[in-house]
Amino acid sequence: MKYNRRKFISFLGKASLGVAIAPPFLISCGNTTTPNKITSQKKSKEELLRLKKLVLEELIATDKDDLILTKGLNYHTIIKWGDAINPEDTFGFNNDFTCFIPLDENNPNDGLLWVNHEYINPLFVSDFDFNAYKNPKQHRTIEQVDKEMYNVGGTIVRIRQENGQWKIVKNDPLNRRITAQTPISLNWDTPIKGASTVRGTNSNCSGGITPWNTFITCEENYDGFWGETEYNEQNIASHRASDYGWEDFYKYPPEHYGWVVEVDPKSGNAQKHIALGRFAHECCTLYELEDKRVVAYTGDDKNDECLYKFISSKQGSLKEGTLYVADTVNGKWLALDWENQPQLKKKFKNQTEVLIRAREAAKLLGATPLNRPEDIEIDPITGHILVTLTNNKNKNDYHGSILKIEETNGKFDALTFKASTYKAGGEESGFSCPDNLAFDLAGNLWMTSDMSGSSMNREDKPYMPFKNNSLFVIPRYGKDAGKVIRVASAPRDAELTGPWFSPDGKTLFLSVQHPGEQTKDLKNPTSKWPFDQDNIPKSAVVAITGDLIEKMNVLHHIEAE
Ligand code: FEO
Ligand code: CA
Ligand code: CA
Question: Are 432 and 368 in contact (CB under 8 A)?
Fold first, then answer.
C-alpha cells in the first residue's frame, strides 16, 4: 500500500510539472485535468504542517438559504447575472458549465472563463409570469422573447487572480456574449433545414474542452424553447410546441438545436458538430488518442435515453468519424452508420437524418435506455469512464447512480466495454441525484447533486433527508477513500453546477444556478442569495479556495518535489 501511494504521488508530481511520462489521458481528458502546465509550488514547513493537520469534515445537510462550505474552504463571487462585461454586454442567466483556459500556459492566474447560460426564468428576465394567465402564450411579446434569447448561450470573460481574489477584467476586448441569436455555422457538408449557418445556441448545460484548447458547450433541453419535430408510425412529421413559445416569434427549426457546439476562446467563432448527433446533450468529454484522433463521450439527459461516443477517423476532427451508442447490457458500442446498418437504411433517407433523429436510430439498433445520463469524466488514474445517471422516477430510481465504463484493454477507441455501477445514490451513500463531476489533480472526485427545486425539502418526497443540493468529494485515498463527503450546501432551490479546477488546482470554479427558482412573487423570493442590493436571487459563478483544496489537491505535488 505504502509503495503504491509513494509511486502514485511521484507520478502525479511529474504529471503536474508537465513531464512527458504522464499518460495522455491524464493531461488530455479535459475538465479538471486541464491540459495546461502547472507551475511549481513551494510551501514553508509551517504551511505544510497546517495543511497536514487539517481534517476533512463532513458538512451536515441543511436547508439554509446560503452557500455554506465545510471547514477549510471559502468562496468569493466572480460574476453574477446582469453584471456588465463590457459597455454592451451583460452576464446571462442560470449559469452552468464553466471552463477556464489561461492566456499564457505559464500563468495559471489570468485567462478566459467560459460560462454556459442554460435557461431563463421569465419572471426574472422578461417580467413575464406564466402563472398569471390561462393561455400565457397569447400574452407574450417579441420584446420579452428577445430579452430571454439574450440571456441564454454563453459568456467569455477574462478573469485574473489578484491577492487571492478572482476578478473579471471588465471591458477586456476578449469579453463577449454568445446568445440565442448569434450566427453559428454547422460543421457538416449538407445544409440542415436549408441552412449551413443557424441562429444561436440555447439550453447550454454542461460541456467540455478540446485537446486543442477550445470550449465545448452542449445544447440540452432545446425543445423547451423551440419545440420538437415528432414522427408518427407512418413517419409523418408534426411539431410539438415548446414551453416558452419562442417559435411563435422566430421561425427557427428545432433541427438547428440539440448539438454539441465548439467555441474558439479568442475569436468567439462557434460551430455545431453534426457528426456527434442531435439529442439533449448534457456534456461532451473528449479524449485524444496517441495518433491525435479524438474520442468524445456524450450523454442524452432524458429518462430512458442513451450514452454515445464518437470516434474520429482523422486527427483533431469532430466531423469525420463514427458515432456509436452504448448497449450497456452486452457491452457493445453500436455504430449509427446509415451505410452499414440495414435497419437505419430502411427508416432514414441518409446519414444526416440518422444524426438529426439520433434517439430513434439508437433505439432501432438496440441501445440501452439509461436513467438520465448526465456528466461524464475520465478517471485520470484508472482511465475508467464515469457517467452520472441522475434518476428515473418512472422506474422508481429516485436517487440515481454513477455508471462505470471500462473500455476493453483500456483502449478508448474499443468497440466493446464492461459496464458496472460505481456508486448508487441513497441515504446510505449520502447523496441523491448525481449530476456534474470533476476530478482534481490528485484524482479525488468532486460531484454535485441535482434534486429538482420542486422536490427538495418536501415531506412528501424522498429527498427530505438530503436537504439542499450540495457539492461532495469522494477522496481517492486515506481513511475516507471512496466515501461520499458533503463539502458545500447550495442556497435554497439552487443546484451547484459546472465544477472546474484552475490549472494550478488551487481554485474550484463553481456555478450556483437558479437560487430562488420556486419564487412566485419577486417581492417575496424563496432565496435572496447572493444577498446583493437588489434583494432578489441571482445565479453566479464563485471561486472556492482554501486550505482544504490545497491539502486534497495540491499537497501531493509538493510532497513529490
Ligand atoms: Fe442541464 Fe441535465 O442538466
Ligand atoms: Ca446538468
Ligand atoms: Ca441537471
Answer: no
- 383-396 residue pLDDT tens: 999 999 999 999 99
Give pLDDT, residue 20.
30
Which atom of ligand 1 is nearest to 390's Cα? 2
Counting every residue, how long is the chain? 561
Distance CA 295, CA 466 (A): 36
At 387, list the grid cell: 457517467
Strand bridging mode 183-186 / 270-273: parallel
Is the shortest distance between the CB of 219 and ligand 1 below 6 Å? no
Task: Indicate the SS3 state at residue 57.
Answer: coil
What's the whole-model pTM score? 0.94
Atom of ligand 1 nearest to the CA of 220: 1
499: left (phi over 0), alpha (psi -120 to 50) or beta: beta
Whether 220 is in the pocket of ligand 1, judged by its Cβ within 6 Å, is yes
Please tell me the distance from the alpha carbon of residue 541 to that of residue 223, in angstroms, as a whole number: 26
CA of 347 to the centre of ligand 3 (A): 32
Identify residues whose C-beta is under 5 A from ligand 2, the ion: 435
How far apart, in whole angstroms, are the C-alpha atoms of residue 490 and residue 512?
A: 7
pLDDT reported for residue 558: 56
Give the pLDDT confidence of 22-54 residue by residue, as tens digits. 444 444 333 444 434 444 467 788 988 899 899
Question: Residue 519, SS3?
Answer: coil
Please, which residues have CB within 8 angstroms of residue 472's CB and are 6 or more apart in sequence?
430, 431, 446, 447, 448, 449, 484, 485, 486, 487
Mean pLDDT across the stretch 204-218? Answer: 97
In angstroms, rounded to a whole number, what is the distance separating the alpha carbons of residues 33 and 501? 8
Question: Which DSSP state fits 554?
Answer: I
150-198 pLDDT, tens digit each = 999 999 999 999 999 999 999 999 999 999 999 999 999 999 999 999 9
Distance in Å, CA 370 to ligand 2 centroid:
15
